[in-house]
Input
Amino acid sequence: MSEHIITVAGVAVDTRHWIGGERVAAGETFTDVSPIDGVTLGEIARGTAADAAAAVAAAKAAFPAWAATSYEERARVLHAVADGVEKRLEELAVVETADNGALLRSHRRGVMPRVAHNFRFFADRLLELGHEDFDTHGHTNHVSWDPAGPCVLITPWNAPLMLATWKVAPALAAGNTVVLKPAEWSPLTASLLADIAAEAGLPAGVLNVVQGYGSEIGDALTSNPDVRRVSFTGSVPTARRIAASAAPNLTPLSLELGGKSPLLVFGDADLDLAVELAVEQYDNAGQVCLAATRLLVEEGVAEEFTRRFTDRASRLVQGDPRDEATDIGPNIHPAQLEKIDGFVRRALDAGARAVVGGHRGEGQYYAPTLLTDVAQDSEIVQEEVFGPVLTLQTFSGEDEAVRLADDTRFGLAATVVTGDPGRAARVSSRLVAGTVWVNCFFVRDLRAPFGGSRHSGVGREGGDWSFDFFCDVKNTVTAPKGWKDHG
Output
């Protein structure tokens, strides 16, 4: 077996870049470590500016032919990629669990099937794009969705393959070519995706995968003048750096960033439902951008809600994510664990009280935590922790609930729990958020727009919004006269 092939949970993974339909080794590597037990998974190609340039050049060279490929053929290839994902679903699930520590049962039942669905949805949506002409004073308007060109897609570590394909699938469906840069803490399934895409018949250079560490390759990708779109999911500081890098070329950006989402529980809510939705925010060890980490509970039910929440949270099982009984796995990296613990320690020092948790576990595990007695302007309420840490505050009436909910610099999502449909409509209309869930959480339809307001992002993706971003939408207006007889 090649020195560049590692075995993870019995699955062979190539650690080299994928550029122009070929594996490309790097002069340097970085170490990929499993958060489950600290075991080294392998040495991963560490990309350079030269690797970035080569990947963009490969995407640029492959673009004309892929852009000219018919909608039907593009859709066929994307469905073939989905077939490949489904064929290797178990391999993808076990590798990603080893790489980022998320629950294996979730990868098997939800995440990897969603990966395949991403390709199928955008393949089918491509064939449904509207091309109807419309009339303006006898002139015909024809709208077309032209491929934009090479796209750079930079993806996070908390749901590596699902969030990568959420971008890759519409970009390819639109007729673009892609350079995918996965997060350095969870790069492995992106490499497997390259293999699957090649086996499905995706032409060389249409999808390229380059690994890197930190900004050393990201800056070279986002500043390249041949790049026509940059889509990024991650932190606000990194987004600022990407925006500055892309600005000289006026490269359009789609940015899905952090969140500090509220969960509003009104006195007329079904408290059992409210508690279940609140405990669900510990999913993926709290490493979910959409997580409603600020519990806002009406005063009259706060005591009972807290009692039920504490009881429910005490029954969560934290441990090895490969165990079917586990509810909460490890956090991704020692640096992330230190960040989480720092937030909690500073909050406790400032007077917060840990009703649940408030401490580290063994290894890279952090106990599910609920903090009360927190001030609205405190760091723990205002800043994204990205770990299994929730805060609880109380409110009196709709106005105060909305004021507290909207009083951060973020605006990614919000959840409202109430038994009154009128209240649900009133409150939802006043919340600053890209997505509002009422009496539910994390229900996602790929036809719907997704993105954030304020510092939670720029733009929307999903459904036709993805094609709006990944295409140059063109209107051709034709006069009714002026034709010569070519008969």
In short: The chain is about 40% helix and 20% strand. The first strand starts at residue 5 and ends at 8.
